[in-house]
Write a structure and sequence with these properties.
Largest sheet: 10 strands, antiparallel
Helix content: under 10%
Strand content: 25-35%
Length: about 650
């Protein structure tokens, strides 16, 4: 089970391990610089959140767009929603669009001839029932969008349908005038009787996935919902086995090599806790195991990272308060709004081996909040003996040692590579202590979003999207968490690439480093190795008030110099900034060829994303050359309606098997 077939066995010196640069408190000025930068960003995050708390703001200048919302009919919004959209045009993308049957749509430009297949997106199709708003974005009733592309004829068809869950059917029977009629995870029904002893319902609103020959819509709220891949009509709930967890993860991980699917969710009552399951390519349940947590309290595990051999769960201390458990479970109070942040608990890290489903390591790391991952990969490298063991010195953030700010991908804020200071200054003179002799270690790199600001503030925004105001504190920094697989020690938690200051009000350019971001995506051919490129949604701070850019982060190529691998900052990040009033969705990378690819071929593909244009209240599917995201778009598929903001998507090539 410990095959090294996909493990990149690169022998590297200490300076090339992310965050494992010289950790001296006296010999390196880089560690204070890194901590100073972290403190500065933390202060900026608090400052932005303070501005939000002081009162509502609105778009101005070129970003103050008048959104042509419908003024009559079933989709016409109430006055308070009109006012909310007038303040921030991006909010127009929260509005429902209704059902649209599969039909031909306009294509501008040329769809590449080798790009034929179906593009799907899933998200909340509505977050209000008449005048009543859902109490969280994640409670919105699910919707699926699909676009069928034919590169040989340069034509496209598209459809958009609500996912017809049992809860949606019940809500429709009650009518909009009845307000919210069914209980959600965060939203209480208007009638108390509809809440009592009723578990939150499944909105089916998060992500699409093909498995066992079916197109499924996933959400933590319940079993997957099957939809027809062409018409997008709802087929019904798909239960793969009676012994699966009660919920089904919104981000179930599929290993494309063998077709196996890994999912997780709450245990079925009366059991308490989480379980992880492995499903075969045909849908058979192969194994279900318990996921050990640090406390018995309910928590939310939205995503995990999958490498060649492991699943890594990073579980923030966002916990259901013990004093609210009874009320939440009985339905007397909101389930989701009974959670709170427990900084004192730290974040729980669990690593599970895929082959055996055995827990390899579990433990506590410094508290951080996350929703999404860019992936994970394994590496064998040389690490100083005293850096791979548990314990050791801890810095002010509680990490195992003091960081010098090195990201492992070129953010070389360390001392000179050829004059390493490991705490006693001897290596600077060519001497080494025996205890500092490097040892070969197997490492797991977990590429994880780390929230810039406060989780409570983030959830408050999600809880009232029509009133939410977004800033860098509500977004993330993509980080590289490096774990020693021999000891379970967290060796590093630095940014994958340096962060820029532009979005925080600095004078830098948007291409200087990673922007406050969400929804990281990598090329499928680089899934189980260090990716060269990561594509994200960015927030430039330019006045749009929401995601306004697509960024291509260059993790940088490492080169050998005098027998030592040296990683320098590449400075090759690219950013596509949208015009005022235009807002992109998460991108989908579609490679030109299947299978693993080299670093040089990694961006040989296409980026597809939905774009909401508030100026006309319409959406388009945009196709870019992934190698040149700032260049002219290849094609634009124009819908005669808008598609509400979506969460996640997938692409299936024409003629590809339905496994």
């Amino acid at each position: 089970s410990h095959s090294s077939r996909h493990t990149h066995r690169t022998m590297t010196r200490l300076a090339t391990i992310p965050g494992v640069c010289p950790a001296s408190t006296s010999g390196s000025a880089a560690a204070p610089r890194a901590r100073s930068r972290a403190r500065r960003l933390a202060v900026l995050a608090r400052s932005w959140q303070g501005q939000n708390a002081r009162g509502a703001r609105s778009a101005s200048g070129a970003h103050r767009v008048k959104v042509p919302l419908p003024s009559e009919g079933p989709l016409a919004p109430p006055p308070d929603v009109v006012d909310a959209v007038d303040a921030w045009p991006w909010r127009g993308g929260l509005e429902p669009c209704g059902d649209h049957d599969l039909a031909s749509v306009e294509v501008e430009g040329t769809i590449p001839r080798d790009l034929s297949g179906s593009f799907y997106r899933v998200g909340p199709g509505r977050i209000r029932v008449g005048k009543d708003r859902y109490a969280h974005w994640f409670d919105g009733d699910g919707m699926i969008f699909g676009a069928e592309l034919d590169g040989s004829s340069n034509t496209a068809r598209a459809a958009c349908k609500m996912v017809r869950t049992p809860r949606l059917a019940k809500q429709e029977r009650a009518g909009d005038d009845a307000g919210v009629a069914v209980r959600g995870a965060w939203t209480q029904a208007r009638s108390n009787l509809a809440n009592l002893f009723n578990f939150p319902t499944n909105p089916a609103n998060t992500s699409p996935l093909f498995h066992a020959g079916r197109l499924l819509v996933l959400c933590e709220g319940g079993a997957p919902i099957e939809v027809d891949p062409l018409s997008l009509e709802t087929v019904g709930e798909r239960v793969f086995g009676p012994n699966l967890p009660m919920g089904f993860s919104a981000h179930a991980k599929k290993d494309a090599r063998d077709g196996r699917l890994y999912t997780w969710g709450l245990c079925k009552p009366p059991a308490v806790g989480f379980q992880v399951a492995k499903l075969a390519a045909d849908g058979r349940v192969e194994k279900v195991v318990s996921l050990p947590l640090d406390t018995p309290e309910f928590t939310l595990i939205h995503d995990c990272a999958m490498s060649d051999r492991f699943l890594a769960f990073v579980v923030p201390p966002w916990k259901l308060r013990l004093d609210k458990v009874a009320g939440a479970l009985s339905g007397a109070t909101s389930f989701g709004h009974s959670f709170d942040w427990r900084d004192d608990l730290g974040t729980h890290l669990v690593i599970i081996e895929k082959a055996t489903m055995a827990v390899v390591h579990q433990g506590t790391i410094p508290a951080m909040s996350t929703y999404h991952f860019a992936g994970a990969y394994e590496e064998v490298a040389e690490v100083p003996a005293n850096r791979g063991d548990r314990g050791g010195s801890r810095d002010e953030h509680g990490d195992p040692f003091e960081f010098c700010g090195y990201t492992g991908f070129g953010d070389a804020e360390c001392a000179d590579d050829d004059a390493l200071d490991v705490g006693n200054g001897k290596e600077e003179n060519g001497e080494k202590d025996a205890e500092d002799e490097p040892r070969t270690r197997e490492l797991l790199h977990i590429l994880v979003n780390r929230l810039n600001g406060d989780r409570r503030a983030l959830e408050a925004n999600f809880s009232s999207m029509y009133d939410s105001v977004w800033d860098p504190a509500g977004y993330n920094t993509l980080c590289d968490y490096v774990v020693d697989l021999g000891t379970g020690a967290l060796l590093s938690s630095e940014a994958l690439v340096p962060t820029g200051d532009a979005a925080w009000g600095g004078k830098g350019d948007v291409d200087d480093g990673q922007l406050p971001m969400e929804f990281p995506v990598t090329a499928p051919g680089a899934r189980f190795r260090k990716p060269r490129f990561v594509y994200t949604l960015g927030f430039t701070g330019g006045g749009a008030g929401y995601f306004d850019s697509v960024q291509k982060l260059d993790a940088g190529a490492c080169k050998w110099r005098d027998g030592v691998r040296v990683c320098q900052r590449s400075g090759a990040h690219k950013t596509r900034v949208m015009p005022p009033g235009v807002f992109p969705s998460e991108v989908e990378f579609v490679p030109k060829k299947a299978g693993e690819v080299s670093e040089e071929e990694e961006d040989d593909g296409y980026l597809l994303y939905l774009e909401y244009d508030s100026r006309v209240h319409r959406s388009s599917l945009v196709i870019l050359d992934a190698a040149d995201i700032e260049g002219k778009e290849l094609a634009r598929v124009k819908m005669p309606y808008h598609v509400p903001h979506t969460f996640h998507g997938t692409f299936k090539r024409a003629g590809e098997g339905a496994r």
